[in-house]
UniProtKB/TrEMBL annotation:
Name the UniProt record assigns to this protein: UDP-N-acetylglucosamine 1-carboxyvinyltransferase
Compartment(s) where it occurs, according to its Swiss-Prot or TrEMBL record: Cytoplasm
Pfam families: EPSP_synthase (PF00275)
Species of the source: Hymenobacter chitinivorans DSM 11115
EC number(s) given by UniProt: 2.5.1.7
Reactions it catalyzes: phosphoenolpyruvate + UDP-N-acetyl-alpha-D-glucosamine = UDP-N-acetyl-3-O-(1-carboxyvinyl)-alpha-D-glucosamine + phosphate
Keywords for this protein: Cell cycle, Cell division, Cell shape, Cell wall biogenesis/degradation, Cytoplasm, Peptidoglycan synthesis, Transferase
Binding site for UDP-N-acetyl-alpha-D-glucosamine: R97, D319, M341
Enzyme class: transferase
GO molecular function per UniProt: UDP-N-acetylglucosamine 1-carboxyvinyltransferase activity
Organism lineage string: Bacteria, Pseudomonadati, Bacteroidota, Cytophagia, Cytophagales
Length: 434
C-alpha cells in the first residue's frame, strides 16, 4: 500500500493542465466494441481505472495501438467471446466499476454478454437496476447466477421501444444508448442523463453513423442502424480535476492558472466556488485563480446559510462535494453540504475534524461546516484515503495544514488523478510517495 507524505503550509504557483475526463473515458472506451472498424481516441488520462479498462478490452481481443502518450487506436474486429467465461475476465470485471458499460455494446453487436458485479469506490449503494431494466426493455433477457454474476442475452435481437428511466443514471443511460443504436426501430429514452460526457458519447456515436436526436436534453430519440463505422474522438478535460484545482488554490492561498478547461462544458461548477467566496477569472479557455488570504461564503437573500448539494446535470456533480466541503473549512461563514446520491461519501470528515476543522456530521447525507476564516491552520495527521474523491479532498487539506501529514492507500487517488503528486510538486507542493 503506497502513501503520500505531505509537508503542508506552502502556497503553490503556476500553470496546470487538467487530464482527460475519467468518467467520459470509461464510456467512450466501451463504445469501441460497437464496430469492427478502427476508432482513435485522444486525451485519454493515464490513470489506473482507465488503464485497467484498456487492458480488459485488449484481453477480450480488441487490437490496441498506442499512437502517443494520450492517444490510442482501437479495433474490435476479432472479439473473443469465449474470454468472457475465463476466471481472468471475472477478476477484471470485479475490480473495475466501469466494466459494466461493456454490457450495452456487447449485447447490441453480439447478442449476449456476462459480467460479475463490478467493484469501485465504497461510497454507498450503487444499484445497476437502470442498466438492466433498460436493456431488458430493448429485448435482453437477464439471468442472475448466485448473488453477483449476471448473464444477458438477446436471442431475438434488440428492438426499439419507449422507456422512462427511474433515475437519470449517467452510466445507465450510456449503456442503453450504446445498445439502442444497433437495435431495430426507434428507441425513446425519457429522463435520460444529459451530462457533457454523455453528450460526448452521443456525438461520437453519431460520427460513427448512429442516429440520435435530443443530445443535451433528457429526452433522447434513437433510430437504430445496421452497423457503425470508425471515427476519431478527443475527450473533454476532467471537470472534477478542474474543480479540485480551484479548491486547492483557495485552500492553500495559491495563484494557479488552470489551462484548457473547455469552460462552457463546466456548467455551474465555477459559480458554485464563487458562492464560497473564491475569486476566479475566465481567460479565454483558462481559469485563473488568484492567491486569496480570505474568502467568504455567501448566504441566501434572507440571510439563511447556504446549502450546496449534488444533483443530476445541470446540477452540481456529486464528485465535487468532497472538494467543496474541504474548501469551506477555511472560509468565513457556514455552509450545509448535502450529499444526496451516496450515503457513505461524507464519512471521511472525522479525519478533517482530527485536523482541526469545525464540522458537524448531521447524518450520512448532510454535514455543516463552520469556516475557520484562516484564523487557525489545520494540523497535519496520519489518515487513509477511503475513495478517489475523498482522497484528493484529504490531500488538499494536508497541503493547507501546518506540519506533516501521511495519507495511506493512495492507490485510490491514482485511480482517478494521473501523477497528481508530480504535477502538484511542479507548482511548489511538497509531496513524497512512500
Amino acid at each position: 500500500m503506497a502513501s503520500f507524505e505531505v509537508i503542508g503550509g506552502h502556497p503553490l504557483k503556476g500553470e496546470i493542465v487538467p487530464q482527460g475526463a475519467k468518467n467520459e473515458a470509461l464510456q467512450i472506451l466501451c463504445a469501441v466494441l460497437l464496430t469492427s472498424e478502427p476508432v482513435t481516441i485522444s486525451n485519454i488520462p493515464d490513470i489506473r481505472d482507465v488503464n485497467k479498462l484498456i487492458e480488459l478490452l485488449r484481453d477480450m481481443g480488441v487490437k490496441v495501438g498506442k499512437l502517443a502518450t494520450d492517444t490510442y487506436r482501437f479495433q474490435a474486429d476479432a472479439v473473443n467471446l469465449d474470454y468472457l467465461d475465463s476466471e481472468q475476465f471475472v477478476a477484471q470485471g470485479r475490480a473495475l466499476r466501469g466494466s459494466v458499460m461493456i454490457l450495452g455494446p456487447m449485447l447490441a453487436r453480439f447478442g449476449k454478454c456476462q459480467l460479475p458485479k463490478p467493484g469501485g469506490d465504497k461510497i454507498g449503494r450503487r444499484p445497476m437496476d437502470t442498466h438492466f431494466l433498460g436493456l431488458e426493455k430493448l429485448g435482453g433477457k437477464l439471468t442472475l447466477e448466485g448473488t453477483d454474476f449476471y448473464r444477458i442475452k438477446a436471442e431475438n435481437g434488440l428492438h426499439g421501444t419507449y422507456m422512462l428511466l427511474d433515475e437519470a443514471s449517467v452510466t445507465g443511460t450510456a449503456n442503453i444508448v450504446m445498445a439502442a443504436v444497433l437495435a431495430q426501430g426507434t428507441t425513446t429514452i425519457y429522463n435520460a442523463a444529459c451530462e457533457p460526457y454523455l453528450q460526448q458519447l452521443c456525438k461520437m456515436l453519431v460520427r460513427m453513423g448512429a442516429k440520435i436526436n435530443g443530445i443535451g436534453s433528457n429526452l433522447l430519440t434513437i433510430e437504430g442502424v445496421e452497423s457503425l463505422g470508425g471515427t476519431e474522438h478527443r475527450m473533454l478535460p476532467d471537470m472534477i480535476e478542474i474543480g479540485s484545482f480551484i479548491g486547492l488554490a483557495a485552500m492553500t492561498g495559491s495563484e494557479i492558472t488552470i489551462k484548457d478547461c473547455q469552460v462552457p462544458e463546466l456548467g455551474i461548477i465555477p459559480d458554485t466556488f464563487r458562492k464560497l467566496g473564491i475569486q476566479l477569472e475566465v481567460r479565454g479557455d483558462d481559469i485563473y485563480v488568484p492567491a486569496q488570504d480570505h474568502y467568504e461564503i455567501a448566504t441566501y437573500l434572507d440571510g439563511s446559510i447556504l446549502t450546496v448539494s449534488d444533483h443530476t446535470w445541470p446540477g452540481l456533480t456529486p464528485d465535487l462535494l468532497s472538494i467543496v466541503l474541504v474548501v469551506a473549512i477555511q472560509a468565513k461563514g457556514t455552509v450545509l453540504i448535502h450529499q444526496k446520491m451516496f450515503e457513505s461519501r461524507l464519512f471521511f470528515v472525522d479525519k478533517l475534524i482530527d485536523m482541526g476543522a469545525q464540522i458537524t456530521l448531521c447524518d450520512p447525507h448532510r454535514a455543516i461546516v463552520i469556516g475557520l476564516d484562516k484564523r487557525n491552520a489545520l494540523r497535519g495527521i496520519s489518515m487513509t484515503s477511503p475513495d478517489i474523491r475523498a482522497g484528493v479532498a484529504l490531500l488538499i487539506a494536508a497541503l493547507s495544514a501546518d506540519g506533516r501529514s501521511v495519507i495511506d492507500n493512495v492507490e485510490q487517488i491514482d485511480r482517478g488523478y494521473q501523477f497528481i503528486d508530480k504535477r502538484l510538486n511542479a507548482l511548489g507542493a511538497q509531496i513524497r510517495r512512500l
